[in-house]
Amino acid sequence: MIRDKFDAIVVGAGPSGNAAAYTMAKEGLKVLQLERGEYPGSKNVQGAILYADALEKIIPDFREDAPLERHVIEQRLWTMDDTSYVGMHYRSDDFNEEKPNRYTIIRAQFDRWFSGKVREAGAVLLCETTVTELLRDPQGRVIGVRTDRDGGTAFADVVILGEGVNGLVGQRSGLRPELKPDTVALAVKEMHFLPREVIESRFNLAGNEGVVIEAMGTITDGMTGTGFIYTNQESISIGIGCIVSDFAESGRTPYGLLEAFKRHPSVRPLLEGSECKEYAAHLIPEGGYNAMPELFGDGWIVVGDAGQFVNAVHREGSNLAMTTGRIAGETVVWLKRRREMATKANLAEYQRRLEETFVMKDLRKYRRIPDFLHRNKHIFGVYPKLLSAAAQTWFRVDGVDKRAKEKQIFQSFRSGRTLPGLIGDALKLARSWR
Amino acid sequence: MMNTTEVGAGAPGAPLVKVEERLFQNRYLVDAGRPHIKIKPHTEPSKALMALTHLCPAGCYSQNDKGQVEAVVDGCVECGTCRVLTAKTGEVEWNYPRGGFGVLFKFG
After folding, report:
1. Which PANTHER family does the record associate with it (chain B) (predicted)?
2. Dihedral sign, Cα of residue A129, residue A130, residue A136, residue A141
């Protein structure tokens, strides 16, 4: 199909693939990028929050023309039972800064913008092109890809796989195993449209200020998972996700769970009168450090979700994707300058560089957390109920004296989870967290 | 067509939801006659395959009169859940749609 040989082929035009392609093209490398969607972003789903730092390191002046929705000035964490939530909110005017730290975005629009920058930098992008397999030389080195465009092939010194969570190309080439149902979450999401002034008054916002809500509790019906509500300019992104194996055992439908979340008495008023314009679903790799596959080999590097680069605790993924994409790109540029081949030994530089960043440091720090959350489902059911009951006991004024209320609250925790259970949970969490 | 009876299955009091009403909002370019997901012929579905009748977020999977699980994938949102869940049994053959086909997210 394509006669020219490229310095690099990038599979996928999401945050990781775009970061890699941009980084290499900007330095003058000959880059071919392949995307199976009609346009970049057409297959991509995210909440979505953009973390400015990761993008600034690639495109410092991105704020000038990127399609940003709202900058986040307030974070709400909710633990919910069926009728209430106990919230921890952090709002600060300090987030109204010249260069805000976090933004809500709409991925289909954002990815298109990012892709425009990649093409301006000189990369060749082919959309509507699904990569079907990796091509190897007799020594097993990856030398290119085959696509579904008339079985066309393309060749390069290195292939960067930013193919996302369903990384079929890498899986089927034996670079990494299939995802496991107990370390991947299924999230469903809807886009609800409302006039911007309605959103601003409901969420206590001015101008382009935004709020993000992360929620856990009985909304996931005993499953390991969380819900989210993000404010965009004229829409609200709302979604909920749980571990696939939990969903399979629960008998619940993902859309039934989302509907129940939407109808929660604390959520319903936020969405009142809105028009839903899209329903999406996506997998999130949540296995963390222990689920990470090989990250590089002879002639290939994996970046983003395909490499399990998600920090599930902090709901970070796109920033890890962009950072791994950038560092993969920088590694390839570095090798090119040194006139060295993309051998496995040389590409080990990619992992060495990643080790120096927050990406590997955070994933390693939280390596025990996915397993902890999966084995301690009461975190998602028992504790939110206990917290809520405690708050209600405390705040309701009914003639019961305060010491009796305190006793009642302690007693409810002891009977809800037993004293050894409480101490054990605290110790396990502390061990997993450190 | 798609699973029309599906509701908030398994949870008493869960709201009734028809997934078609949601999928109706989405844009698709259907590759007519070339479904990207196929179920291997079977007489009795495994537990994992059976779970897809409630787990598939697009309600693509349903059980027929003979107890077999069938899929109509026109409304598929390409999440990959069915492939992951049945990886061990190998009952679902999952590919990306041909380039350009399938779901086209407007917002994502």
Report:
1. FERREDOXIN-LIKE, FERREDOXIN-LIKE PROTEIN YDIT
2. positive
Domain range for A160: 5-67+106-177+293-356
Cβ contact, residue pair A244, B81, below 8 Å: yes
Q: Specify the DSSP class assigned to residue B25.
A: T
Return the residue of A nearest to B108 by Cα.
Answer: A45
Q: How many domains does chain A have?
A: 3
pLDDT at B14 over 70: no
Which residue of chain B comes nearest to A239, CA vs CA? B108
pLDDT digits (tens, 9 = 90+) for B55-86: 999 999 999 999 999 999 999 999 999 999 99
- What does residue A147 show for φ and ψ, rounded to 5 degrees? -120, 175
Using the predicted structure, report yes or no on whether residue A138 has a pLDDT greater than 70: yes
Query: Would residue A352 count as lying in a domain?
Result: yes
C-alpha A319/C-alpha A359 separation (Å) is 9
Q: Are strands A124-126 and A31-34 parallel, antiparallel or unpaired?
A: parallel
With cut-offs at 50, 70 and 90, classify the pLDDT of residue A293. Answer: very high
Is 3.30.70.20 the CATH number for B19-92?
yes
Domain definitions of chain B by residue range: 19-92
Q: Residue A331: enclosing H or E segment and its boundaries?
A: helix A318-337
pLDDT at A375: 85
- DSSP at B72: -
For A177, A179, A265, B67, the CA distances from B80, given in Å and listed in that order, are 14, 10, 32, 23
Q: Which chain A residues are Cβ-neighbours of B50 within 8 angstroms?
A: none
CATH number, residue A310? 3.50.50.60
